[in-house]
Amino acid sequence: MDLNNTKAQMRKGVLEYCILLVIDGKPLYASDIIDELSRSKMIVVEGTLYPLLTRLKNDGLLAYKWEESTQGPPRKYYELTDEGRYFLNEMGASWDELVEAVRMIKEHK
Amino acid sequence: MKKTFTINISGSIFHIDEDAYEKLQRYLHMLNRHFGAAVEGQEILQDIEARISELFIEKTTNKVEVITDGMVDEVIARMGKPEDFMESGEEEASAKAQPEEALTDSQKIRRRLYRDGDNRVLGGVCSGMGAYFNIDVVILRIIFVIALFLSVGVAPIVYIVFWIAVPKAKTTAQRLEMKGKEATISNIEKTIREDVKEVGDTINNYKNSSSADGSTRREQFGDVVTSIFRVVLRVLVLLFGAVLIIGGIASLIGFVTSIAIGHSFMHGGPWNFGWDSDVNMTGLLEHFVSPGAYTVSLIAISVLIGIPILLILFIGTKLLFRYKTNNKLIGLGTFGLWLAALIALIVVSVNQVGNFGKQSSQTVTQKIDCTTCKTLYLETTDDLYESLIEDHISLDRMKIAVVNGKEKMLGHPRFTIEKSSTGEYLLLIKKRARGNSTEDAQKNVELIEYNFSQKDSTLKFDPYYFLKENAKWRNQEVSMILKVPEGKSVYLNEKMTEIIYDIENTENMWDGDMVGKIWTMTPDGLALKQAPVQLTK
After folding, report:
1. How far is residue B219 from each of residues B113, B194, B205, B224, B232, measured CA to CA in Å?
2. Closest approach of chain A CAs to the CA of B39, in angstroms?
3. What is the pLDDT of residue B272?
4. Which of B279, B331, B515, B531 is the most exposed place for a label (fewest CB within 10 A)?
């Protein structure tokens, strides 16, 4: 079994949740999200983020607005929609359950 | 010293050196192919370009003005290649299933013909063709619409053939192939030239290797032969494909014309040019096939001839465009349809042949009332139909003439002269026809119309017998025997050549030479009257 592949699969599973988590609260633009995710080593290459952002937006979980920038062209700022917030809550709950489940199994040994 | 370009990425201007430019272009190209031409893919690409632009801005602020190869490498490493993106979803999954080099080594992919579902109007055939030939789709569509009007319905058929035969580009890899390395004429030429060059090289190798031992020489000779053979084969395959396509389309046009023009609603359309005959295959069938069987046989013939033509067209396009086909079901179905048509046609034919199984005849004997006259003058009425007859069609002895837009079946009767056993002129008119029973044959006999008239000593024959309207052709024939008593004479007018048939005479003269003369019945048979007669008529 390929360890790297398994790791990537696990990361992939929670990546969407993390993106929603990062954006929650204040509008962010792609580079901010990348900084956040790179710092926590959630993504390896930045190209991964863009298809996900577009898909979350098309699924109605995210919305964006254009904002002028002091350097360079206008930027896309993403924020959560109501549906996105609901989704985030649900995913959060299920994430907590998962973590709890893993913790319990580990302690039970 | 390096050449630099000025480029615009997502609204910002950059200077970039040549190597870096090419690398960046390849990278963006790869991303473009990966994400596809759909709205979503384009949006992703724009976002990525915006990010690349931002990274370049960061890098070029501190004194360095020109983007270099290394900087592009850094950016690519940071953004990642398509295969590094962690993605889910069916499309990406199937794209991943394709060999990885298909994505990275796009330059080497042979182009294949696909239907382009992203830019389709109907089945995406035109847009796929456009991608294949590097032609603007709009131009192809205009050509197609024009062809729609000029090709007697062939264009839609060809379109449907492509629609069925050519697969739709579904995965990223297929879309890559669709726009892969060009396979246009110039490119085909290029590959052939490369092959030819290879042949030249192997021949040179062969020549230069004179010092080598015999076995390598033989091997190299084998190389020369195989590479020559390969070039010849490739050229032949391409030529063969082209010939098949041209032949297929031509026969399709001919065939559809023959089938379709027959229907009245097709008459007078812009597609009806250059077709000078008013009688066609469907019209012809109508004359001897019974109505129920007519439709069946027409459809069966269409399928029987149409499918092989389409097959030829299909093989031709496959040889030229090298697209993949995956539809065994359609192939089997088509073959089944063809067999069914063949069986249907055989059944119908056997049935129709039955319509000719029995013969019946009817002979009417008429006394020619001319006791006083010594000579009977025989002539025919004017031939009104000669110019109306379709010369290229004949059903045994009968022909088809088009009179006021209606088709009429007619034929020359056969006229001969024999000795009368009584002292009177007698005319025997024998009408014959076939049918599936004697009664039916008799009915068909009664559909024959034939007229002659007598005025004093002159007999005027119609040059044709006709079939009544809607009568089917059942081998109807009319023959006449004029019985001439001994000592009496007949004069054959020049016009009689049309109908006289094998009149026995003592001179052994051919029918054609017998006209314009007076013939007297003698105990030995019909004899030429020696003294030339001045006609006072």
Report:
1. 38, 21, 11, 9, 20
2. 11
3. 40
4. B531
